[in-house]
Amino acid sequence: MSARPQRRPAGRRLIAGVAALAAATGVMTAAVPAGADSAERHGHGHGRTVDVQLLSFNDLHGNLEPPAGSSGQVTEEHPDGTTTQVDAGGAEYLASSLRSARKGEKYSVTAAAGDMIGASPLLSGLFHDEPTIEALNKLDLDVTGVGNHEFDEGRAELERMQKGGCHPEDGCAEEGKEFEGADFPYLAANVTDEKTDKPILKPYTVWKHKGVKIGFIGVTLEGTPDIVSAEGVKGLKFHDEIETVDKYAKELDRKGVKSIVALIHEGGEPASESYNYDCDSNGPGDGISGPITDIAKGITPKVDALVTGHTHQAYACTVPDPAGKPRTVTSASSFGKLYTDTTLTYDRKTKDIVRTSVKSANHVVSREQDKAPDITALIERWNKLAAPIANQAVGHISGDIPGRGSTSPESPLGDLIADAQLEHAKSLDEESDLALMNPGGIRADLVHKASGSEGDGVVTYGEGFTVQPFSNTVNLVDLTGEQLVTALQQQVSGPNEASPKILQPSDGLTYTLDMTKSGADRVVADSILLNDEAIDPAKTYRVAMNSFLAGGGDGFAALGEGANPLVGADDLKALNDYLTANSSADKPLDPPKADRITVVD
């Protein structure tokens, strides 16, 4: 999802850990009926075909502990059409789920589709995501592709995640212990050095077991530079996903590797929010839309399955390849709440996958199963290091304040963050008029009773960090009224027309968003008011926003045109200061009403 540079001030360290195992439930079956001898999958027989278990997940984002609130739930559909919310996720449970799934499997490989790190909760983020890499190693991850968030701290830090070594500024997280790096390869086939034109990491790897060979190619979305800070992608080029995968699929084929899986950090939008809905009930390709569908339709038939991510959605679908043959396309939501179990039937004679036998389903990482003791120990170790910072109280709230989990374009937490940034801006320049916050920078909810919290309504530093884990500053710029209106229109036009990015407004800015219209017309121009006055195209307004938006990020070119810039403090400090100044145990802060944008749909 949209990225901002990760917060890594000196003296702080990241804590993360990955996958905890969960009891597998759930069902999402994709592909056509199985036709191979399943005995091989369970270690019996030596026939021409064998079933290879492919376990996969995506967008973990350093969520070692169970995600709080709606961020830690998945929607389950029942036979009668009703749905329930199921608590899921947490590395201790993900580890247990994966280990349980592997039992009895003679051929099993585990892969991921990017954003394993970045935008992480404090437990991982404070230590530059070293805890998450440690946890992924314990999870026996075999391979992952890069995602956009792997570039939050830049190329050098990504290479450190792969190779190991202590952080160049903060040093070693634990005295006398050097970070060892990932035991699994990170793949970055479509990310090249702009000077050498060579991939910055391995473009592919080949998994081998008892004569079976499967190639994995890893790519991130070509638009990564649009959603990561310029510093994070400095000196790098990001190439077309289809062209890159096709190039390396041909290379693998020439080397005799006929079975190929693409790990693609780009995704789609399923027709249902339920993780276990029948994606192919109306035919292959009809249950999913979005960027991944065109990619799936364009990638060479040499590729047998696509493991995807980025949109944080759950699906196990089939989409026809260029030859019209159904091909599995999967995504396991985010934050370790689901994992996908795909059966790839491997033909020993052709060395290829029998595509008509591919089966795939998503399974819940249930919190009702036993925790993996080694992951629990890892989390406890890092929590002990983080505790002095993480447990500091910064404010009080009277109820849940939805952010990432909000189902509306305007979220209560988005409004709160915008108000906090405006208050900070006014402390720097009393002429500041308004603030705007990008939705992708809000990574969680603020919940009234956080998991493991001692007291209801207390907001800790760690909880705030989870909401805003990026190293953004609060910046002030001058924008004309015309530029401001253009920026609001860019929420729903240009690169954001297909998937709108609705900016969260500070108190005083109101307007109507008519989603029955198209493009820029969705923003009703004469409805835009600031403190009940119409925006004057010729007037100059002092606008606060984070440094990512001030650079034109997320397709907001107009915001990048601001004049007279002034750089303020860290955005997390602005939020914490606001909570401290405007709440107490006796007078907790009420959730904002989120009524600044009137939506017509």
Name a few traits of the molecule.
601 residues, alpha/beta, six-stranded mixed β-sheet, 13 helices, 29 strands, globular, disordered N terminus
Mean pLDDT figure: 91
Give the helix proportion (percent range): 10-25%
Task: Output the number of helix runs.
Answer: 13
Major β-sheet annotation: 6 strands, mixed
Overall structural class, as computed from helix and strand content, comes to alpha/beta
How much β-strand is present in the residues? 15-25%
Short structural summary:
The chain is an alpha/beta fold and 601 residues long.
Topology summary:
Elements: E1 49-57, E2 73-77, E3 83-87, H1 91-102, E4 108-112, H2 122-125, H3 130-138, E5 143-145, H4 155-163, E6 186-187, E7 191-193, E8 204-209, E9 212-220, H5 224-227, E10 236-238, H6 241-254, E11 260-265, E12 269-270, E13 288-289, H7 291-298, E14 305-308, E15 314-320, E16 326-332, E17 338-347, E18 359-364, H8 373-390, E19 393-396, H9 412-428, E20 434-437, E21 458-460, H10 461-467, E22 473-480, H11 481-489, E23 504-505, E24 509-514, E25 529-530, E26 533-534, E27 540-546, H12 547-550, E28 563-570, H13 571-582, E29 597-600
Parallel strand pairs: 1-4, 4-5, 5-6, 9-11, 11-14, 14-16, 20-27, 24-29
Antiparallel strand pairs: 1-17, 2-3, 7-10, 8-9, 12-13, 15-16, 17-18, 19-21, 20-23, 22-27, 22-28, 24-25, 25-26
Helix pairs in contact: 3-8, 9-13
